[in-house]
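Model it.
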Amino acid sequence: MNSSKSVEELNNHKQGRDGIIAAHMEDVLRELGEDPSREGLLATPMRAEKALKFLTSGYQADLQDIVNGAIFEERCDEMVVVKDIEFFSLCEHHLLPFYGKAHVAYIPNNRIIGLSKIPRIVDMFARRLQVQERLTKQVAECLQELLDAQGVGVIIEARHFCMMMRGVEKQHSATTTSSMLGVLRRRKETRDEFLALVRQNSLYA
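Modeled.
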């Protein structure tokens, strides 16, 4: 989650430093052979700073604020699935986007969470410099810790611009990662139920 010392230090480091990234972006533009003083680029450094801060705003997100008390005692032990959660993130290796959908399931242990909180948790972790494997694991572990669920499953399907625009340049490649905890890891039939629900067509397809 976001309570580690390194994240606190990062947040403190960001305070009162508006314009610092923009100033460096001017140097980047020059190194690329551009003229940051020309009309089309005058506002680009500050726009880039604002975009980067938004795309990494997950570092500053507070999990308790996101959940906002929306965890409820409920006599329920059947699988809950929220699928096709769209997300965007930044590859920490090249600072290029990757994007896709997350499918999240949990089996309550008499505690449930407001459904809208699950996509918000996905966004909290996606809006950081990431690798898909870690993002998948972080979402699963976060829900498990919040709910003390019988099991949690997360599947993420994504396309990576670092593979599409550079390197191997494979535009149609996709990457799937999964994290299964508790009964979803131990029981094949429970895991198969989750996979079958993910494969089902949407009501609005």
